[in-house]
Design brief:
Elements (H helix, E strand, L loop, with lengths): L7 E14 L3 E6 L20 E3 L4 E12 L5 E19 L5 E4 L8 E21 L1 E2 L4 E24 L13 E26 L2 E23 L14 E28 L4 E18 L2 E12 L3 E12 L2 E15 L1
Antiparallel strand pairs: 1-4, 1-16, 2-3, 2-6, 4-5, 5-7, 7-9, 8-9, 9-10, 10-11, 11-12, 12-13, 13-16, 14-15
Length: 337
């Protein structure tokens, strides 16, 4: 901690991060849907195609923090908040006889065009209790024990335009089938870390900060599917929404963080203030945070008693259970006063 007359310090960070999220795949391509001119209800084997997924662009975020250096034995208390939001879209087109098949919907029809939009909202608060140690004249350490809370909101909306190529579904050609997935997470838990500072001279230093946490969180997941208005008769419904599956559950989520780079400090205004600047590479990693509900196996059979009663249909759902990572450049300004 810089030695200035006051006990307070403030931080402001600008982040330029790239998000990587597992489970954004929305379709895969096939080369042929049966011989031309013949109606088919299944793709022609062998299948040779590619998986289509949403990737994110680089986006800006912010961090703000306020800390207090206690007069007792180099202890300090530091609270900081992180906000980051990113979104992107991806689309794919295939001309007949090639087509695209859904990886998101229960109702999977051959599509000629697919567009998917993905959004990630991230908010994080941490409260640190730390003590600084001077290991030598050039090296200092700051272990800290914290409380961490995170809010993560994921959403993905996908539109499938059904192909007009002759199939058993050609009466639906040109119609848009839509899926909407949303998942929210709120978690809280302990966090621990170690900040290190390695002096180089002339106010410059290298720094390396690492931290880890385990959050106990509440998940809410929602999966919905919609058919075009003209197709509601085929589905024996008056509503365009044919599926709405929601889920609530709790789960532990591990977290790890790393921030490495170069820093610089300078006393200003007759040593009444200390200005610190940092620029480095940061990674934040959440395990199994994407818990979208996705359709799995679909089973259909007849239920018999003394006579045929009805047709039994069973749709299985699976959790995506994929990871989320933020990585990129973080610049920080700190003022001790």
């Amino acid at each position: 901690n810089p030695d200035v007359p006051g006990n307070w310090f403030m931080t402001f960070d600008l982040t330029y991060w790239h998000a990587k999220l597992g489970g954004t795949e929305y379709a895969y391509s096939i080369q042929s849907w049966g011989p031309p001119g013949i109606q088919q209800s299944a793709p022609r084997f062998p299948i040779d195609g590619d998986v289509k997924a949403v990737d994110f662009s680089w986006d800006m975020g912010i961090k703000v923090g306020l800390g207090y250096k206690t007069p007792h034995d180099n202890w300090d208390v530091y609270a900081h908040y992180t906000w980051y939001q990113t979104e992107d879209s991806a689309s794919s087109f295939k001309a007949a006889p090639s087509m695209l098949l859904s990886l998101k919907s229960i109702v999977s029809f051959p599509a000629s065009h697919v567009k998917s939009h993905m959004n990630v909202d991230y908010n994080n608060v941490e409260l640190e209790l730390a003590r600084s140690y001077a290991i030598s004249s050039k090296v200092s350490l700051r272990p800290h024990f914290d409380v961490k809370s995170a809010w993560i909101d994921l959403s993905q909306n996908t539109t499938y335009t059904i192909s007009g190529y002759p199939t058993n579904f050609d009466n639906l050609g040109g119609g848009d089938f839509k899926t909407k997935n949303r998942m929210t997470f709120w978690g809280i838990g302990p966090r621990a870390g170690l900040d290190s500072k390695w002096a180089l001279g002339y106010g410059f230093h290298l720094f390396g900060d690492v931290a880890a946490s385990v959050l106990y969180g509440n998940f809410k997941s929602l999966h919905r599917e919609f058919v075009p208005l003209f197709a509601t008769i085929s589905f024996h419904t008056d509503s365009q929404r044919i599926y709405k599956i929601s889920d609530k559950f709790h789960r532990y989520v591990p977290f790890a963080q790393m921030f490495l780079g170069l820093g610089w400090d300078r006393r200003i205004n007759n040593n009444k203030f200390n200005l610190g600047l940092k620029l480095g590479y940061e990674v934040q990693y959440y395990w199994r945070i994407n818990q979208f509900n996705l359709p799995g196996e679909y089973n259909q059979g007849n239920a018999f008693g003394k006579e045929l009663i009805n047709v039994v249909r069973q749709q299985r759902f699976e959790k995506v259970s994929e990871d989320l990572m933020f990585y990129g450049i973080t610049g920080e300004a700190r003022v001790d006063f």
